[in-house]
Design goal:
Helices cover 28% and strands 24% of the residues. The chain is of the alpha+beta class. The chain has a 3-stranded antiparallel sheet, covered by helices on one side.
Length: 123
């Protein structure tokens, strides 16, 4: 018995119906990071594990917004403030009109955390 192969017509639609909204994503990142990191008094090993939880929670809330044709990547980095400098940068192959980025910085007296969400357009 052979299975029938489904074939779909091309939509010829080049733009997303619900595009990535940078302001809304920054607000979500800020709320999630404030909720999680406000309970930490001092940077320690659990702060690093908390980054994963923050990333997972932010990813779930952002994916719930159903940004059409976008792959979502959330990266959260935490660093202790201990009389040192840091250079934080990233390099991407970018489609400027469609791809987007939103970030939020949580600042605490003993550490800081940077949350970045990439919205990569996917046809």
């Amino acid at each position: 018995m052979t299975q029938r192969v489904l074939r779909f017509q091309n939509s010829y639609r080049l733009e997303a119906r619900n595009p990535f909204n940078r302001d809304e994503v920054e607000r979500i990142l800020g709320n999630v990071m404030e909720n999680h990191f406000s309970s930490i008094e001092k940077f320690d090993g659990t702060s690093v594990a908390m980054c994963r939880n923050v990333s997972d929670d932010a990813m779930a809330l952002i994916k719930a917004k159903n940004f059409d044709r976008y792959k979502i990547i959330v990266v959260v980095t935490a660093c202790e403030k201990f009389m040192q400098g840091i250079c934080y940068s990233n390099k991407n192959l970018w489609d400027a009109p469609r791809d987007a980025l939103a970030s939020y910085v949580y600042d605490h007296p003993s550490f800081f955390a940077i949350g970045t969400c990439y919205g990569i357009y996917f046809e």
